[in-house]
């Protein structure tokens, strides 16, 4: 392990078919006033809303609702929820939904009692300032869509739709959910499109952490194990979306992918995410599909700078036979295998399919945050990558 690190994750996970039974116990740890946050209403159609409300009533909670939190959650919705929290002296935020809902309530929690001179989005999502004693409202979650890992981390991605800026950051442990309830059956009603988008989101989180460093790091072996589990279960779930074992494996893999362990002692990359954030700021595309469309061209652009790791990825993850092949051939074959897998799962692999136009590409490229692992890309290089992603 090359770099010193500190690992802490305070989120309690309740996992399985009966996991919602634990909500009553958790609610008893908090005050009377609950903000129930959720998305566009699917939890009312599938019955999860009624189950949660029944438990809240049984616990004699006073419930305030913040609904219609959409994918790529907007700054305006975050601020709306923050005002509700402060005005009603909320004791606990209960997010019922996927990563967008959970990301948004983390922002609400930070913004509710913020009194700084800068706008809260600028301070925490643009300048990445520390919390510095900021009052935080505790969060609990009931997960209904898999992919982001937000149920067990401090990550929060928010979109300033007015200025076309989508930015994510990882807050320290006070913003981690205190508890998260994960019932794989709650993900059965989402569309196949949403399911495979979440699968690639999980895969991308693992790759962003994996493609860095040249040391023999235990964390890389952990990532490889999770990644192979995702591939195996994804193939099953695409054929039978109601396969409980496959869907439960995918759910847990997605949670593990960003719980902190796969990043231990790693430099990390995250440029694919930086590019996708701005892509979805312009197109409002599904996050995982945007990551899929960008990933293969991006990795073909940078692989030579981390050649040995890309060779390892090809051999260990995809089983590429290196007999008689150069390292470059093996590395590229591994990326080809990933692309083949994505297409077999009916994931989106071009920007054109996501609603991007060629005219958008220069503005998207110019607005991206710059990062990178093996290769620190420039705005000009991002534009070239986007062109390769287009069709």
TrEMBL record:
GO terms for molecular function: alcohol dehydrogenase (NADP+) activity; butanol dehydrogenase (NAD+) activity; metal ion binding; methylglyoxal reductase (NADPH) (acetol producing) activity. One of its GO terms (cellular component) is cytosol. Its EC number is 1.1.1.1. Residues 10-184 form the Alcohol dehydrogenase iron-type/glycerol dehydrogenase GldA domain. Pfam families: ADH_Fe_C, Fe-ADH. Keywords: Oxidoreductase. Gene3D superfamilies: 3.40.50.1970, Dehydroquinate synthase-like - alpha domain. InterPro entries: ADH_Fe/GldA, ADH_Fe_C, BDH-like. Residues 196-389 form the Fe-containing alcohol dehydrogenase-like C-terminal domain. The keyword S-adenosyl-L-methionine does not apply. This is alcohol dehydrogenase.
